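Many introductory courses stop at the sequence. We go one step further.
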Amino acid sequence: MRLGQYEVIRKIAEGAFGRTFLGTHVLLGEPVCLKQEKTGDPTFQDLFRQEAKLLWSVHHVSLPSLKDYLEPPGYGPVAVMSFVPGDNLHTLVETRGPIADEHICWILQRVLDALSYLHFQKIVHCDIKPANIILDIPVHNAVLVDFGLCLQGPTAQSRPKGGTPFFLPPEFLQGLPPIPASDLYSLGMTAVFLCGGDIHNAALPTDMDPRLQQFISAMIRRDPMARPQDARALNAELTRLRKTIFGRTETKEVFKLRGGIP
């Protein structure tokens, strides 16, 4: 099937409100991700359009880029996104097992850098979780996706649109407005999941370095004001921590699971 300049190859995933497809630009031969709003509900279509409008001006290596936006008759709105190869972190951990601590560190740093960029533009993602982070292992990149619940310029009157159990910041359940520290909580809980911790009790593995345990535990404090507040500062702290624990601030070694399994 063809939509404008794009050939639809296969369906990648489907949720309650939309579908995603792998496609290709017919002239350039480059892969794209086609995200379609499927409900036909004008309210959801408007939200989808707002998400596309927000992504139009977002440009960061660890965030998806919007290549095009279509509203073809009979198909619903379609956002043409950059295609990110690899698995999302939920699928990766479920199929391969928990990730080694040093590799969790660089994954966190990629997402923290993306959050620093978003928060500077007053955008709170509001739905950070393993399923919304795609890992491109060969280039050591992690890409934060799905901006359907994000808020731009939240105020004291703003309320979260939703979230995912275990990764949902406690303040969302209290009806409080999303703030940057809300994203940091969700990222901290994502780290708990990645290392094979107990997400029901927010507990980290006992064999994790205590300094890294302390770093992640600070991110998941229930009081949002008691958490770190700044993604850039947190990223810098993690760089120093990597140097202390692993003796280096970057690694190009083969991706490893906990226990040193490639």
